[in-house]
Amino acid sequence: MPEQKKLLIVDGYNVLRSGSHYEGLRSLMPDYGDEAFNAAREALINDVGVFAGHEYHALVVFDGGGNRFSDGQPSNIGGVEVVFSPAGVTADTVIEERAKQAAAKRVEVLVVTSDATTQWTVLDSQVRRMSAKGFYEELKALESEMEPYNKQSPGKNTLGERLPPEVLKELKDRFG
Question: What does the chain look like in DSSP terms, one character per residue?
């Protein structure tokens, strides 16, 4: 039986509004309908996907409780489950419920939020928490680790252009 993934739950709006990581985008978002706010949400979802990798099932919960049309149905964006809490329900409630459900199934849960009430509510032997600042620091560390792999030599786009000359010569000699 394959090992069950850990669950990563991110308090979307809390993380967007906490710390400085999304500050540039945050300063452009006067309300939830603004395009800059959509860009900030997309950036967060992308970051969560990078952070989660193959280790976590990732869930980002945004507060949709004040929107009478929000039904709470999840969608999948780039491998990240995204939920706007249903009308009349806070994101904190959805986060707490999902964390408790997973913990009851003995799934290790990591909740990313800087909301003190949510932090204390979700703490359990199976549930850990990370602040928004801690999340940003982990992201920076991941970016630093990946930097050498993300750099591409200018003008070297094909495999043949990226191979060392001696390997390319060996392949040409061997296979024509």
Answer: -PPPPEEEEEEHHHHHHSSSTTHHHHTT-SSTTSHHHHHHHHHHHHHHHHHHTTTEEEEEEE--TT-TT-----EEETTEEEEEPPTT--HHHHHHHHHHHHHHTT--EEEE---HHHHHHH-BTTEEEE-HHHHHHHHHHHHHHHHHHH---TT--SHHHHS-HHHHHHHHHHH-
Q: Which residues pair with 82 in a beta bridge?
A: 60, 75
Distance CA 111, CA 96 (A): 9
Mean local confidence (pLDDT), 50-74: 91
Is the predicted pLDDT of residue 18 greater than 90, yes or no?
no
> What do you get for the CA distance between the two ends of the chain, in Å?
46
The C-alpha atoms of residue 38 and residue 6 are separated, in whole angstroms, by: 27
Contact of 62 with 89, CB cutoff 8 Å: no
Predicted confidence band of residue 93 (pLDDT cuts 50, 70, 90) = very high
More confident residue, 40 or 21: 40
